[in-house]
Write a structure and sequence with these properties.
two-stranded antiparallel sheet; 0% helix; 151 residues
Length: 151
Amino acid sequence: MYDSFQVYFDQRNNAVPAAKYDGDDVVYSVGLDKAGKPVAYLEKSPSGRFVGENNAMTGIDRDVTVAYRRTERGYDFEVLFPPAALPFLKLTQGSLLGFSVFVHDNDGVKRKQDLVLGPVQMTPFRHPWAWKCVKLVNDAPLARETTVDDK
């Protein structure tokens, strides 16, 4: 994939320093396939989850919905990971998970630049202990931004 991004999930938020992946970690690459269709490619599956007709542990995950559109400034991706894609994640208020994202700016020959959610000079690849902790909340409204009129 050229321009793309990777999404990392530690569904049980149980990574330990210096350890690599365990059975609940999931990694997806999201981008356009050779035909220009948006896809989510499962790079590292959780234990017991398989994709495709051959029940493979890696490959395009048709359960994940990916939308793509060009904009004046480039493009937008939207991704929906259904519960089946994250079988060890408890989708309840207060659940914690490890999370990271790695954005690749690659126009063909090699990656020009990237953006990583995590420590400087470290990619999320095989470093789940460095991923950020995310807490799931209910759909209550977020805190409102303060404007000049509010002061």
